[in-house]
TrEMBL record:
<feature type="domain" description="ArsA/GET3 Anion-transporting ATPase-like">
    <location>
        <begin position="10"/>
        <end position="282"/>
    </location>
</feature>
<dbReference type="InterPro" id="IPR016300">
    <property type="entry name" value="ATPase_ArsA/GET3"/>
</dbReference>
<protein>
    <submittedName>
        <fullName>ArsA family ATPase</fullName>
    </submittedName>
</protein>
<dbReference type="Pfam" id="PF02374">
    <property type="entry name" value="ArsA_ATPase"/>
</dbReference>
<dbReference type="InterPro" id="IPR025723">
    <property type="entry name" value="ArsA/GET3_ATPase-like"/>
</dbReference>
<dbReference type="InterPro" id="IPR027417">
    <property type="entry name" value="P-loop_NTPase"/>
</dbReference>
Length: 372
C-alpha cells in the first residue's frame, strides 16, 4: 500500500465493497497515511452516512473539501475530506455550465426539484461530476474515493452511458421539441407517438408536469451535452494508469462473494484493480495448534490448577479455529482470482473512531502491525 500511495503517478484510489466491511475506515486510513507520507490528499465519501467525519474527528463534512487539522503530530503532507451532496453538486453544475438566465430558469423548474433528488442514477452522475471537478482543480496529489456500501457502488462506472441513453430516448426527444399552444403540442406528440403509455402518464402526473418537463429539458439540452462529455472524460480517467481500485471485504462468505462480484465487474470494465483488502482478520499470535491447546487446558482443569491459564488456552484454540476458517475462505477467493493481491488487516480490540485508530489501520495496511 505504501508503494501505491507514495507513487506520484497514482492520482485516484477508489475503495469499493459491500456494507459493514470497514470500507470507509480503510479509505480514511489510506488518506491519512498518504498525508503523513507527504502527499496532499483529499478523501471523498459518496456514502451519506457520517462515519468518515466521525473517524476524522470532525462534526460534519460538506460538499467542498475541508482541511483536517491533525493534533499531536505534523504530517509531511495535507489531509482534506468531503462528503458528496448530490443536490448541491447538481446545482453547481447547472450554474457553472449555463448562462445566468438559463441557470435561474433551470433551478426554478418544478421538474428539476424532482429530478435533482430522486431521478434514478442521479447520485452516480453527481459522483462522476464531483470526481471530475476534484481532478480538474489540480489542488490534490491524491484523491481517495469511498463509495456507497452496496453493489450500486460501481453504478457510477455506467453513468456516462446511462446518462447518454436516458437523454437520447424518444420520450426525452419529444420533451425537448418546441412546445406549442401552452404545451398542447407536446401532449399531441405524445398521443401520436406513445398513445396509451402517454395517456397513463398524463393520468398519473398530469399535463402540467409534462409541460414543466418539456420546459426543463429544452433549457437543459445544451447543458446536458457538456455534462455527458465531462462524465465520459471521468470514465476515461477511471480506466487510466493513474487510477487504482481497492476491493474491501471481511473474511466472511457473503462479503467475499460480493468482493468476487466487484473483482469480476472491474475486470470486465478493464478497470485497474490494485487488490483486495481483507479487513478484520484474526491471525494467531502463537504457534500452538488448537488440539494441543485444548489438551493442555483439559489437563489443567483435571488437576484443578491454573483456571486462568486453561481459559487462555481455550481462547487461543478458538482463535486458531477462526484463523483457519478465514484462511480457507481467502484461499478460495485467491484460487478464483489468482492475479489479485490480498492484504490482511488484523482486527483491533475496539471500533476505529479517531485519528490514532486510523493511524494503526494505516500501518497494518502497509504491511506493518502484524498484518498477514
Amino acid at each position: 500500500m505504501d508503494t501505491l500511495i507514495d507513487n506520484p503517478k497514482t492520482k485516484v484510489v477508489v475503495c469499493c465493497g459491500s456494507g459493514g466491511v470497514g470500507k470507509t475506515t480503510t479509505a480514511a486510513a489510506l488518506a491519512l497515511r498518504a498525508a503523513e507520507r507527504g502527499r496532499t490528499t483529499v478523501v471523498l465519501t459518496i456514502d451519506p452516512a457520517r462515519r468518515l467525519a466521525q473517524a476524522l474527528g470532525l462534526e460534519e463534512l460538506g460538499n467542498v473539501p475541508k482541511r483536517v487539522e491533525l493534533e499531536g503530530f505534523e504530517p509531511a503532507g495535507e489531509l482534506w475530506a468531503m462528503m458528496l451532496d448530490m443536490r448541491r453538486t447538481f446545482d453547481d453544475m447547472i450554474i457553472a455550465h449555463s448562462d445566468p438566465d438559463r441557470a435561474e430558469e433551470l433551478l426554478a423548474s418544478p421538474f428539476y426539484q424532482t429530478v435533482s433528488t430522486s431521478f434514478s442514477g442521479t447520485q452516480e452522475y453527481m459522483a462522476m461530476e464531483k470526481l471530475g471537478q476534484l481532478v480538474a482543480d489540480g489542488e490534490w496529489d491524491l484523491i481517495i474515493v469511498d463509495t456507497p456500501p452496496s453493489r450500486s457502488a460501481l453504478d457510477f462506472l455506467d453513468a456516462p452511458k446511462r446518462l447518454s441513453n436516458a437523454l437520447d430516448t424518444r420520450l426525452i426527444k419529444l420533451l425537448t421539441s418546441p412546445a406549442r399552444a401552452g404545451g398542447w403540442g407536446v401532449r399531441k406528440a405524445f398521443t401520436a407517438g406513445l398513445a396509451m403509455a402517454t395517456k397513463a402518464v398524463s393520468t398519473v402526473i398530469g399535463g402540467q408536469l409534462l409541460t414543466d418537463a418539456s420546459a426543463f429539458m429544452q433549457a437543459f439540452n445544451s447543458t446536458a451535452g457538456g455534462f455527458k462529455e465531462r462524465a465520459a472524460k471521468t470514465a476515461e480517467l477511471l480506466r487510466s494508469p493513474g487510477t487504482s481500485f481497492l476491493v474491501v471485504a471481511a473474511p466472511e462468505p457473503d462479503a467475499l462473494r460480493e468482493a468476487s462480484y466487484f473483482v469480476e465487474r472491474l475486470s470486465d470494465e478493464s478497470m485497474p484493480l490494485q487488490g483486495l483488502v481483507a479487513n478484520r482478520t484474526h491471525p494467531v499470535l502463537a504457534d500452538l495448534p488448537a488440539t494441543k491447546a485444548l489438551a493442555a487446558a483439559e489437563a489443567l482443569e483435571r488437576d484443578g490448577n491454573g483456571p486462568l491459564a486453561a481459559a487462555v488456552l481455550r481462547l487461543h484454540a478458538d482463535r486458531v479455529t477462526l484463523d483457519q476458517r478465514e484462511q480457507r475462505l481467502l484461499a478460495r477467493f485467491t484460487r478464483a482470482h489468482p492475479g489479485v493481491p490480498v492484504v490482511g488487516v488484523p482486527a483491533l480490540p475496539s471500533d476505529v473512531n479517531d485519528i490514532a485508530g486510523l493511524r494503526v489501520i494505516g500501518e497494518r495496511l502497509s504491511g506493518n502491525g502484524h498484518a498477514r
